[in-house]
Amino acid sequence: MLTGLLQGPMDRRQLFKFAAGAVPGAVLATSIGAPAMAARTSRAPWFDPTSADDNLETYIRMTRSADPTATSVGWYGGRVFSVIGDQEIVKPLFDVEGFGIGRTEKKDDGSYMTLWREVGYYKDLASGKIMETWRNPLIDETVEVYPINNDPVNNTLRPRFRLGFGATDDEHSETVDFILPWNFIGPNAMAAFDVNLAWKSPLDPKIWKRESPGEYVRVSEYQQWRVDLDELNDRSVPSLKPYGSWNRVAAWLPWMLMGQSPGHLFYRSHTLKLSGVEELPRDILEYTAKHYPKYLTVPTEWKEPNVSSFEMFAKDRKPKR
Prior knowledge:
This protein has helices spanning 52-63, 229-232, 282-291, 309-316, and strands spanning 28-29, 35-36, 72-83, 91-106, 112-123, 133-136, 141-144, 148-150, 155-157, 160-162, 175-177, 182-185, 188-200, 216-228, 243-250, 264-274. By secondary structure, the chain is mostly beta strands.
């Protein structure tokens, strides 16, 4: 989800590619893909897309705020689909909607400490209501839905950072520059961030026979943002107003009781930065206030390790027989 940059150990492939030119507006590489021509601008730019420091500061401004006293709220909402084999039609299963909340503080060494937590709910396709049970058509069984409630999702982000965030023993220590792929077209600045994760599942398939997708969990997340180029180049603006998306390829959710059945999930969603929790949709705000009220407030303390939905599920549920 759009919430923290490092959600777990990543694969060993380099995540960022970019052209070597030092002039903003030159040919830049798209995210793990072919180069794309960016439009030149006559503005006097502050932002250098080949600078790791500039990229990190801009990432903070896009996804959170460079003001350490500001509360950041990031909303997401979309749909989740089943993907089974190469021939079966991709089918919608349910919707997902939620938000992350936190604040960011810049340290003397140029890094940023981010305090963050995130919550989200699965919603019925027909009614749009938050579900507490769901009839899984893939196994023809009613299952108990488990919402996203990840706390903490904290990180220390640096211009040059180590892949992995210390939650599992199987992560590696590759270090990369914080460089995002950029496109500049007219007044638009567009960036993306692709993450491909794999870590040992906290749900042992020998114990969690119906819940675990296997020994390892593979998750890929693809985020995109569009911001105004003039606003990006104005460093006096601590929080940019991006329009974005979050896509995800992931294993079956534990509460779906799919076990190691062939296939996986695909998420597509919109993302939007809000000025506060009062701008959240009424159903999300009211459900959170009733069931998960801490997610309406900013974390005040650094905690570790970070958790994913799999760790939270293992903590709160017992294996089905």
